[in-house]
Design a protein that fits this description.
single chain; binds ligand CA2; 145 residues; Rossmann fold; 18% strand; 5 helices; alpha/beta; five-stranded parallel β-sheet
Length: 145
């Protein structure tokens, strides 16, 4: 399978700030871990990160017909980007939304996801494992355990 991992604003800072919430592993180490995991399952994986809403929308559009699945942590855009919601609805690529932290244990504004309705499902609070769990789901779903 071909996976596209999309990370939104500030997630390039993983491992560099707020380790109490987001852990100590860097964005680069997350990408390596996921690429290795995909390779071990006969799959390919690309990582994309942007702090810009339009760039994320372009990446979603570009995934159509190229990737089998998207795993996305839209960062704070989760809570208000109807443009990302519309982009997900506009393409024929299934997406799982991932949040590193348990957003439901945090501020009220983080409890609402406007993007999750366009996703197969949402994973939150499992740390970086959430990305891997999403990939595992797609692999199983496609008969490749
Ligand atoms: O828990 C998550 O994964 C979030 O999507 C992270 C977003 C936040 O706005 C969402 O409510 C929940 C923030 C990403 C910030 O990432 C940082 C990583 C390291 C250091 C500082 C920020």
């Amino acid at each position: 399978m071909k996976f596209l991992i999309i990370n939104g604003p500030n997630l390039n800072l993983l491992g560099k700030r707020e380790p109490g919430i987001y852990g100590e592993n860097t964005y680069e180490s997350l990408c390596k871990r996921l690429k290795d995991f995909a390779a071990a399952h006969d799959s390919q994986l690309d990582c994309f990160q942007s702090n810009h809403e339009g760039a994320i929308i372009d990446a979603i559009h570009g995934a159509d017909g190229v990737y089998d699945a998207i795993v996305m942590n839209p960062g704070a855009f989760t809570h208000y980007s109807y443009a990302i919601l519309d982009a997900l609805k506009a393409v024929d690529v299934p997406c799982i939304e991932v949040h590193i932290s348990n957003v439901h244990q945090r501020e009220e504004f983080r409890h609402k996801s406007v993007t999750a309705p366009a996703c197969v499902g949402q994973i939150c609070g499992l740390g970086l494992y959430g990305y891997e769990a999403a990939i595992r789901y797609f692999l199983e779903e496609n008969g490749r355990p």
